[in-house]
Design a protein that fits this description.
Radius of gyration: 21 Å
Largest sheet: 4 strands, mixed
CATH topology: Immunoglobulin-like
CATH architecture: Sandwich
CATH class: Mainly Beta
Number of helices: 1
Order of helices and strands: HEEEEEEEE
Helix content: 10-25%
Strand order of the largest sheet: 1-3-6-5
Length: 142
């Protein structure tokens, strides 16, 4: 008798989690955008144009492990940074990467609204006030 209750309890819990995890499947307001709507930028550009709903991928030279990283200076009303707490770097071009070799840090932004945005990125250590490099990009959004 108690095994039957235990089985029912396990099935009920399993169904609850299955339904809870899939309740928004296909109806989510997540920040996913098809890859063909991604504008990829290498290096600091003076001015770029994009459209609402697209993803902006910016790749800037960085040295992983040095403590330096590219950070968005001011929050944006038109762009939303995706995964701001996650550092992403490209793979080194060489087969046997050596410590200290530069790669590209990859930053992703979701374009939320139309307008003109002056994005300022700073290459710095988060615990220091000094900025080693900066990058300003004027972004026109249709």
């Amino acid at each position: 008798m108690s095994v039957n209750i235990l089985e029912r309890s396990c099935i009920t819990i399993f169904l609850f989690f299955t339904i809870a995890c899939n309740i928004n499947n296909g109806n989510s307001n997540s920040l996913k955008t098809p890859m063909n709507d991604t504008l990829k930028i290498e290096g600091c550009q003076d001015k770029i144009n994009t459209k609402t709903g697209s993803i902006l991928e910016i790749r800037l030279e960085a040295v992983p492990g040095s403590g330096y990283q590219w950070l968005l200076k001011d929050s944006s009303q038109l762009l939303q940074q995706l995964n701001p707490d996650s550092l992403k770097f490209t793979n080194p071009v060489t087969e046997a990467p050596a410590p200290g070799l530069p790669v590209q840090q990859v930053l992703h932004f979701k374009v939320m609204k139309k307008g003109i945005e002056m994005m300022r990125l700073e290459y710095k250590r988060i615990w220091e006030k000094e900025t080693l490099k900066s990058c300003e990009i004027k972004i026109g959004i249709d």
